[in-house]
User: Fold this.
Amino acid sequence: MSYSAEFETTPVSADQLQPARYFAASYAGEHVAGTEFVIGAMFVAWGVSTADIFWGLLWGNLLAVLSWTFVCAPIAVDTRLTLYAYLKRIAGPGTIRLYSVVNGILFCILAGTMITVSASAVRILFDIPAQVHWYPSDWRFVLVALAVGAVVVAIAIKGFRRVAQFAEVCAPWMILMFVAGALSMYPVLQAELEEGASFREVADSFIWQGNNSEFTAWHVAAFAWICNLAMHGGLSDMTVLRYAKRYQYGYFSALGMFIGHYLAWVCAGVMGAGAALLLGKSIGQLDAGGVAYEALGAAGILAVMIAGWTTSNPTIYRAGLAFHSLNPGWNRAVVTAVVGIVTTVIACFPFVFSRLMDFVGLMGLLLAPVGAVIVTEHWLFPRLGYTRYWSHYRGNTTNMPAVAAWAIALLVAFGLNQAGVHLFFLLAPAWITATVAYLVLAGAMGAKQDYPQASVDALAEDQRKQAEAAFLAGAAAAHSAGAGRGSRQRSVPGLVVLLALACCAGMSLWAFGGGELERFRDWLWLPTVVYFVAAIFWVAGGEAGERNDA
Assistant:
């Protein structure tokens, strides 16, 4: 089976399921992203308190991990389908056209934001001013955004495997750079207080000052949960997790949430506050590239570039699959390329920067009710005696109860928002409303009936699952027998990778302990270059070993 096969409309075959490390790298890489610089700085600008940040992020990210592991991953592994293919079975081609357009547009905007973040780093090399308006204020920034977008699209076209491998190379170093940037900036902030000031004193004075009583730990927790709700509660990550060998791979989302959306947001807040103090500007006047450059020098430019890439790659991949679902006869690579071009044009207008939190909240709100419909049909229907795919068996082009439940959920959310409920708290009521509405309407319109074709399809699905289980059992035995093959191809590059990371960590600890900031920023690029050269050979060695084992 070719690695280029993406199984856009059929279940992923057993021989194409991917190893656990790809999912670990994918989640860590995607969620340790350029937008973490933006969101971490926004919490600072909004005046959230230190305690609210740490407690709110703990509970919100835990909820997100549980949603991935017990809502999205089990359905993805059970069906082996993309969200779009499964929704088509449930709700028909009419519904999928509407949903795919909405979903694809939102993912294009989100991916465009990531490309803009990467471009905010490259612009420093050409002395282009920070782009903090909704429109580009320098034509050179447009050229930079177009060039960065071309790289991102080229990777996304390659498909899931190449996207995951790119993240596998970048993720360990990216995680370390967030920590290194915070360590280098912390002494700058601490120096403004009396000697020996505690972290809490520094944080309360310069970072999370707690001067906005309207933004509490509950808001932080809600945002941490809903900022990726489209992926887990809205089930868009079925697209990725359908390649997982077991649903427990959903736990790897913890790497993204607690490293990317906890540690990275905290570190970005420290970096943003330190950069603002050094430059004598408010944090709202800085972009991600400016913050990272002040903290990490040339390595910061690379960090923001790669952070944007590791998120925009899978996002464009998802958007390409969304639009491909409109016509499965289209070539996926061509569709992804067209989507990438549109996304890159969007990236030239950094309008989402100023309202990123509102955008991701709105994105989750628009898509989550459809996830509720799928979860209802997949989990609740069999338990209530309803028939899965009932609308398909009735020959309906559009599942009207599903569309109606989606619309009713959004109307309820709109009404609650007009009554004063914050955007971040609308997602749970919308989900519950969609679930109840779909159960009632589908039951009234034919879901309670029995359909002869249902038993035939259920038998075929059981046979597919049995064949997959048998293949995985045999593959596990073969892997155990051939363990160690290809290890020599990875051992030397792996050692160099570890030494380069250790060098970066040591330099950051030196800066944290009072070392000269300028010297740290001037030399951090050297172990960074060594790391990436070695990491590329390390990942290539792992792929060669897998093919030899196969």
User: Anything to note?
Assistant: The mean pLDDT is 84.
